[in-house]
Write a structure and sequence with these properties.
Two copies of one chain form a homodimer.
Chain A: H1 12-26, E1 35-36, H2 38-45, H3 49-61, E2 65-68, E3 72-75, H4 80-104, H5 107-126, H6 129-146, H7 151-159, H8 161-170, H9 176-192, H10 196-212, H11 214-220
Antiparallel strand pairs in A: 1-3, 2-3
Chain A binds a DNA duplex (30 and 30 nucleotides) through residues 8, 10-11, 13-14, 37-39, 42, 47-51, 53-54, 67-73.
DNA sequence: ACTGCCATGCTTGTATACAAGCATACGGCC
DNA sequence: GGCCGTATGCTTGTATACAAGCATGGCAGT
């Protein structure tokens, strides 16, 4: 976890700490169930408790941690209910966004999308899952921006913490990245030809892929899930 | 603005302050452009700066306030772009939710919805706008709960601050409440007969009503809007 | 009377202190 | 050896202090 303490601009510290902790949770570097303390994190990051606390409060809003007074802060386990909620939110927002993106995009927009696709293919072949995850977010975020409502992405992120952990855990599965790239291409193709219905259909299908791996993941990491049998 | 300081349970203070400030902003009791200071709010509420600050940070996430270091905290003016964003989010989430609600609801569920409608009619006739606003939220929230994804409502609330202010300002307009109740009845009727398409159509139409009053409101309160000419 | 400069008082962001509460460990007793 | 009670050390929530920066007002000079 990296925090640039040289930059003391207003609020930058809290934002950095929030992003660093969120990424560590999504990537399971901070594994589900792990106990954290504000004091301990503050010391290891070389800051006071206040910005750490404010970052943790925001992560609690995102349901990525649970703060228990007098006991500590715990990285939450993946909740199937929260995954289902996030899936619902994601489908509703991103399918509506991609429709608008298909209706509004011009050639330059499509070229930019294809640029992201090209980089995804490079990273797919290299097996760099962290990098690929960033590029996955970048494509989805770009499509939301193209809809004229970038808020769809940033808002969905607030609910998508649990689903994002599942997304990240899915990446090492055999041929997973190949399928993801193939589906991304279908979406971008539909946006290119301005076919809103096809764009939505491809997006909906694509977003449901994530859930396909859920049972396997629960088998591999039963302790990561809160409703494990 | 009411804060119950007798209740010192963990986190309750911040949650109360957040809700009180949000409601004061949505109702324009704290009017757009108004300068606030953490210290001043803390003194008037009889608490320290910390819970006030944490509530304000959350309100900043909701785009209801702007925090300017060294200068103060300002109640944000209504942004037409933010209203459009919120409208997009609301339509996407609530239309998807009402479809599921139509598919899943049973008789008891529909009875509960009709109970809310009945209370809305009483309040409509009494002209109690604050009370009506609460009941409006209650119906929409109940429909989201019926979809099985209550998160749709709570998440949308995070993006809907600006739109909610427009919703609240619209209420005094002649016959507005009558039209709202009539449209609520159409939605509940579609849910009752399990017609997902009709439920979505009615909801979409209903949600767009709010925007109808926008130009009039800008005429009445140009200083409440940030993009006023 | 006007302009420019500087000090002051206000703000937020972060650091630190204090209060309350919980779990655990240790000691004493049976 | 087990059980019970108490103290301690940890946590979070909130209170308070400090640092940095900005705008404004007052004063001095022209």
């Amino acid at each position: 976890m990296k925090i640039d303490r040289r930059v003391r601009r207003a609020g930058v510290m809290r934002a950095q700490i929030y992003a660093a902790l969120r990424d560590a949770i999504v990537s399971a570097e901070l594994e589900p169930g792990r106990q954290l303390s504000e004091q301990e994190l503050a010391e290891s990051l070389g800051v006071s408790r206040t910005p750490v606390r404010e970052a943790l409060v925001r992560l609690r809003d995102d349901r990525l941690v649970e703060i228990v007074p007098q006991l500590g802060t715990f990285v939450s386990r993946v909740s199937l209910a929260a995954v289902a909620d996030a899936q619902f939110v994601r489908e509703a927002l991103e399918c509506a966004a991609v429709r608008l993106a298909a209706e509004r995009s011009d050639r330059a927009d499509v070229r930019a999308l294809k640029g992201i696709l090209a980089r995804q293919e490079e990273v797919r072949d290299a097996g760099d899952f962290d990098r690929w995850y960033v590029l996955d977010d970048e494509l989805h975020s770009a499509l939301c921006e193209l809809s004229g409502h970038g808020v769809a992405w940033s808002l969905a992120q607030r609910a998508n913490g649990h689903l994002n952990r599942v997304r990240r855990m899915s990446l090492p599965q055999p041929r997973y990245l190949h399928e993801m790239v193939a589906e991304h291409k279908l979406i971008v193709a539909a946006v290119e030809r301005g076919d809103a219905d096809a764009a939505e259909e491809s997006m909906r299908h694509h977003l449901r892929m994530v859930l396909a791996a859920l049972d396997d993941l629960r088998g591999e990491h039963p302790d990561y899930f809160e409703d494990a049998g």
